[in-house]
Specification:
The protein has 362 residues and is mainly α. The protein is built from 18 helices and 4 strands. It has 3 domains: 60 residues, no CATH class; 136 residues, Helix Hairpins, CATH 1.10.287.4070; 143 residues, no CATH class. The strands form 2 sheets. It has a two-stranded antiparallel ribbon. The protein has a two-stranded antiparallel sheet with strand order 3-4. A hairpin with a 2-residue loop joins strand 3 and strand 4. The two termini are 46 Å apart.
């Protein structure tokens, strides 16, 4: 089994983790595959042989394996909730992309009139009038009542919307395509609505579960974390202080730290692919949000960009730095304080302190 996909072990193994007599170890698939190729060059593969390989790895290289220990119930509750929320967000995004593709074919005006296709007014409008011809045939009084009901601006703004509808020209006239796409659009907007409602319900559960966690104050104090990212960061660190011996282990495990390879006199550094994707995504997204809220983070990001790094490279570098800071707060059970960190930068003579103090940009 592996921990590539998420923070938590796979669901089928969750029932065994709480069983005291059992000690579970995570074996990366690549490790077992590489050992199989080394010992059996023919490429032969079967379950009994793989079981023997796993046993050899456990007996001979246990120090290289990670033992799976259950975190506290409060932590696991937050971890599972934030992961399920992310899955719903991804599903909603996929449905919005499908909706966009359909509208491009027969009703592209909707993409010009509205920036967000998941808004309540767009979903309601497409459910009632899923094609331009139907919308143009609607009585003006019905349209005005609809826009007033969904609070689409004052009288002048509503009239402006009405004027945009009348001269619209259908993208295609093939009734077979329009009817099929319209039927699909009606279904998709219902799915988008349901997913949006589900995400809002999960947000409430996450807020309640995170607020009840004894470590939440640490992550809630981080700049740019907010109601979405703070619980995800809590889930990323967990509550087992002994799980990571240093910040370096968390940086590597999360995939934020780059991978260094050497061969002879050659040495190269590249992106780390084998990691829990949701964990890396959490650190990456939060680091991006922190640029707006933290003066030193913004200065560090600009410093990295001035060196020629791309946006994502600069954000990952910032996340790498943030993990070290938050790791210390987590270990010491103290909230993050921007002024305390800035004082530390001044004490160590960091150029970031000068940039923040003078307000200069790179």
């Amino acid at each position: 089994m592996s921990e590539i996909g998420s923070i938590q072990p796979e669901p089928e193994f969750a029932a065994f983790i709480g069983n005291e007599p059992l000690h579970l170890f995570s074996v990366p698939p690549q490790m077992a595959s590489s050992m199989r190729q080394a010992l059996y060059p023919s490429g032969a593969k079967d379950d009994p042989r793989d079981a023997d390989l796993l046993l050899d790895l456990l007996l001979q290289h246990r120090n290289k394996l990670r033992r799976l220990s259950p975190d506290s119930e409060a932590t696991r509750r937050v971890q599972h909730l934030v992961e399920e929320r992310r899955k719903l967000v991804d599903e909603k995004t996929a449905q919005i992309n499908r909706l966009t593709d359909h509208l491009k074919v027969y009703f592209p005006q909707m993409l010009e009139w509205y920036e967000r296709l998941d808004s309540d007014v767009v979903c309601a409008l497409l459910e009632r009038w899923p094609a331009l011809e139907e919308l143009q045939k609607a009585p003006p009084a019905s349209l005005r009542a609809f826009f007033r009901k969904h609070r689409c601006g004052d009288r002048e703004q509503i009239e402006h919307r009405m004027e945009a509808i009348r001269p619209g020209v259908p993208a295609i006239h093939d009734r077979a395509v329009i009817e099929a796409k319209s039927a699909a659009v009606r279904v998709i907007v219902r799915l988008v609505r349901v997913l949006g409602e589900g995400i809002e319900e999960l947000d409430g559960q996450i807020e309640e579960a995170a607020a009840a966690h004894p470590d939440f104050f640490i992550f809630n104090s981080l700049p740019g974390a907010g109601p979405v990212m703070a619980p995800r960061l809590l889930a990323a660190f967990g509550s087992q202080r002994e799980r990571y011996r240093s910040a370096d282990e968390l940086q590597s495990f999360s995939g934020i730290a780059p991978l260094t390879e050497t061969s002879g006199k050659r040495k190269w550094v590249h992106f780390r692919w084998a990691c829990p994707k949701f964990l890396r995504q959490s650190f990456h997204e939060w680091a991006g949000h922190s640029i707006v809220q933290s003066g030193w983070a913004r200065a560090y990001y600009q410093q990295q960009r001035s060196k020629g790094n791309s946006h994502h490279e600069a954000v990952r570098s910032l996340a790498f730095k943030w993990i070290r800071i938050v790791f210390r707060c987590w270990q010491d059970r103290v909230a993050y304080d921007e002024n305390t960190y800035l004082a530390a930068l001044v004490k160590h003579g960091s150029p970031l302190a000068t940039i923040v103090a003078t307000g200069k940009t790179m």
